[in-house]
Amino acid sequence: MSPRAWWLFAASSAIWGVPYLFIRIALEGGVPPGFIAWARVALAAALLLPFALRRGALRGLWQHRWAIAAYAACEIAAPFMLISSASGTSLRH
C-alpha cells in the first residue's frame, strides 16, 4: 500500500473510532446509554436537517408517513429502548 493510502486509512480509522472512544468514556463516567444514543441522533438531525430542507430532499415523504413511522419504530425506537435497558452491563467487569 502506498504512503497516501496508509494516511487515508489512518484518517478514516480516527474519524470512525474517536466517537466510540468518547462513548466509552461517557459510559464509564455514568452517562446513561439511552441518553448517548438519543444525543447522537439528535446531533446528527440538527446538523443534517438544514441541508435536506435546502435541497428539497424531504419533499414527498408525507405520503409515506406510515411506512416511515413503522420503519422508525423498528429501526430506531426499539433498539434505543434495548440500549437503554442494557445499562452498560458489559462495562462492569
Walkthrough of the structure:
The N and C termini lie far apart (39 Å). This protein is 76% helix and 0% strand. The radius of gyration is 18 Å and the shape is flat. The protein is built from 3 helices and no strands. The longest helix has 26 residues. The chain has one domain. Helix 2 runs antiparallel to helix 3. With 93 residues, it is mainly α. The model has no long low-confidence stretch (mean pLDDT 86).
Features of this protein?
93 residues; mainly alpha; 3 helices; 76% helix; 0% strand; flat
SSE inventory with pairings:
Blueprint: H1 3-28, H2 33-55, H3 65-86
Which secondary-structure class do the elements indicate? mainly alpha
Largest sheet: none
Q: What string gives the helices and strands in order?
A: HHH
The number of helical segments is 3
Question: Ends: how far apart?
Answer: 39 Å
Number of strands: 0
